[in-house]
Amino acid sequence: MPVDNLSGKGRRRGVNRFNLSFRGEILQGVDPATAKLNFARLFAIHDPLRTEQFFSGKPVVLRRNLDPKRAASWQLQMRGLGLQAELTKQTDNTEAPAAESRPAPPPATPAPVPPTAPANPPPAAPATARAAATAPAAPVRGPARWAPNPYTLRPYQAGAAQRQRAVHAARLKQAGAVVAVVATIALALLVAGLRMLPAPAAVPPLRAAASSSGGELLLGTGKFLLHHDRSGAELETLVLRNFGVTGRLAGLVWEGPQSLLLLADNKSGGNLYRCQLEERQCRLLADESGPLQADAVTVIEASGQLIIADSARSLLSLHDARGYRLASSERPLPARPVLRTHGGLLLLNSTEGPGISVLRYEAGAFAQQLDEILLLPPAALDAGLVATRDFAWSGEQWWATLEDPETGAAGVFRFDALWNTLGQVAVPTEYNPYALVPWGTRMLVLDQDQRHLLRFSARGEPGVALVSPHLQGLADSRSRALGLRQSLGELALGLLALLALAATCFTLWQHLRQRVFAADRQRSAPPLENRTADIFWLPPQPRRPGRLTALLRRLGASQGHLGVLGKQLILVDHRGVYHVGNGIQLQRHPLFLRTEEVVLYTGPGRRRAFAADAWPLVQPALTAAGKADTGTIVVALLESRHPLALTAAGLLALALASAVLLLI
User: Fold this and answer.
1) Which of 257, 354, 539, 583 is the one with CA 20 to 30 A from 286?
2) Using CA atoms, how far apart are residues 562 and 475, in angstroms rounded to an integer?
3) CB-based burial, 101-129: b 16+ in 10 Å, e otherwise
């Protein structure tokens, strides 16, 4: 069998000879006008009438006495132009015109054999005479329109840089592994640190509130007094520590225009202070036994005397304005006593049931009980509210908070001056009414877990909640601090996670590169020189291309070229870089062919990127080819900057980054 290769060995001629005949058949799907034009150009016919005579349907011998290579090449070249030619074997001594006897052309027309061969005659196909007579269509040499420009082809060169790629990849792999480990450790430490980092100081809730006879309002947190005018506008913020108060605020009672009584949560050493707002000073009240300890206090407006309840000692006591004791009485007191004076009488929430005890407060008959008022609204009884938490007079009616001692549930109810039920006040379910604060004709309801007070009219209609600007500012600052910390934390977590993921992927990639490069033989491609005319270039898929081929065309990239030169294959990638090889010099993948860094997309078996009927010419060179896994092909594609690989890598990187940022 004749063989052509790059070393330029001689050729052997076979004994079988063939004739090339044509009866004007045009392949299906080919435009007849284009096919006739291609035929005229191939045989240098300039007369359209003469060209038409070759398509009359009568057989015409175009070439005689051809060796198998040249015969197959002519047939395949015509097939590439959309024309169906036939080969007939002739005997050793006879040159038959065709396999079937056909009439000669009309006498008026000379024998329609092209006078001269094309400028670049087709090459001989590497096949036996029998294979040549029945071989499928295959690409032709240089003159074919799909052949690459031989002057732009560049041989692959395995220089010093290519030989050191495996070592360089190993070093990069080691560096990537170090970065991945460090980033992972930093990520874990950051997660632990964010969990252990204390949150910004919580905004303190309101602990107590009191209004003066002139309508001024004092709101108290654990450490601050918030002074408001009668309209609710904040006047100033006072720090209790600057007043000399130790402990946190527990209760407030207005005593005069600039004087108030303040209860702290001290358990010993006295906790009742008299504070002067103008002087910014508070002092402990004391009697002959020492500093006063109180759980509740009220002021008798007419005399300025104080009534103090001490639950720990079950003691009610009457004191003058300086704090000296005038009278006292031992009696059971609730855990949180509430003292109110009204109509010359002392009112105290009862220790048993939803009632209010009516007492005298004169020094001679102090704490003598006159009556017991039961508060029995039907809604309270149905809800199991059987204890009095607080009560207050406002707008010519009584307000009372009734509670369930076991569950802590509570409700607010209104009563007339004779304690007849007027109805229940609608309080939001998330609000637990702790104290009632009369404010002119309005009533404020305080929850010790909230930063605002509910506001109701005299008829129990809800109004706009009272919010301290100071507390709202603290809440906004805390919210901004939390938001900033969360944003910075998420950003840092995202960057570290992205860095760890990128470093891990980089390490795996360098490991794959090291494995691939270490197995390469580092061959350089031999120069083609003047052998390009002998290369059979496979035509591209004439029908609907595969998906990757179509994508390459959309990206504006070259598909590459595949040529046959004797027993060797010529692989030309998208860059115009070529390499030559056969057998073990090649690596085969279901979609690609590879030798060294040159990778060519060939398509799947059922949809080749090149004409399927020409593929048998490639098979002999692939008999001993090794198998390439997908990782090896990916490395080669990225090393050669293949458009498909670069596009896929960019999309993958974008998807991974998006996934990390979405999960953080």
Assistant:
1) 257
2) 72
3) eeeebeeeeeebeeeeeeeeebbbbbbbb
Q: Name the packing angle between helices 469-519 and 630-639 (round to 10°).
A: 100
* Residue 510, both tokens: 């360098």
Residues 406, 408, 409, 413, CA torsion sign: positive
Identify the bridge partners of residue 90 per DSSP, sorted by sequence position: 17
Instruction: Determine how β-strand 234-239 pairs with β-strand 224-228.
Output: antiparallel
How confident is the model over 421-457, as pLDDT tens digits?
999 999 999 999 999 999 988 999 999 888 899 999 9
Q: What is the C-alpha to C-alpha distance for residues 664 and 659, in angstroms, rounded to an integer?
A: 9
Q: Where are the beta strands (DSSP E) in 365-451?
A: 369-374, 387-394, 397-403, 410-415, 421-425, 435-439, 442-446
State whether residue 188 is helix, strand or coil: helix
- Smallest Cα–Cα separation from 124: which of 3, 286, 249, 236? 3
Q: What is the pLDDT of residue 333?
A: 94
* Helices 630-639 and 643-663, packing angle to 10 deg: 100
**Kind and range of the H or E run holding 73:** helix 68-80
Contacts of residue 46, Cβ cutoff 8 Å, sequence gap at least 6: 40
Burial of 492 (0-12, 13-18, 19+ CB in 10 A): middle
Which of 156, 154, 160, 158 is CA-nearest to residue 520? 158
Question: So what's the pLDDT on residue 148?
Answer: 86
Helix or strand holding residue 480 (H, E): helix 469-519
Strand-by-strand arrangement of the 592-595 sheet: 598-601, 592-595, 587-588, 626-627
Q: What is the pLDDT of residues 134-179, one digit of tens each?
A: 334 333 344 467 788 887 888 998 888 888 989 999 999 999 999 9
Burial of 525 per CB tally in 10 Å (0-12, 13-18, 19+): buried
pTM assigned to the model: 0.54
Query: Residue 6: is its pLDDT beyond 60?
Result: no
Q: Which residues are registered as beta bridge partners of 18?
A: 66, 89
Q: How far apart are CA 627 and CA 404, in angstroms?
A: 82
Q: Comparing C-alpha atoms, which of 323, 283, 330 is closest to residue 306?
A: 323
Which pLDDT score, from 0 to 100, does residue 655 have?
Answer: 81
The residue with tokens 């000692």 is: 313
Q: What is the pLDDT of residue 115?
A: 32
Write the secondary structure of 527-567 as one string of H (helix), E (strand) and C (coil).
CCHHHHHHCEECCECCCCCCHHHHHHHHCCCCCCEEEEECC
Whether 414 and 399 have beta carbons less than 8 Å apart is answered as yes
**13: pLDDT strictly greater than 60:** no
The CA distance from 246 to 644, in Å, is: 75
Burial of 395 (0-12, 13-18, 19+ CB in 10 A): middle
Confidence of residue 209 (pLDDT cuts 50, 70, 90): very high
Query: What is the Cα–Cα distance from 372 to 352, expressed in whole angstroms?
Result: 10
- Amino acid identity for residue 353 in this structure: G
Do 603 and 615 form a contact (C-beta atoms < 8 A)? no
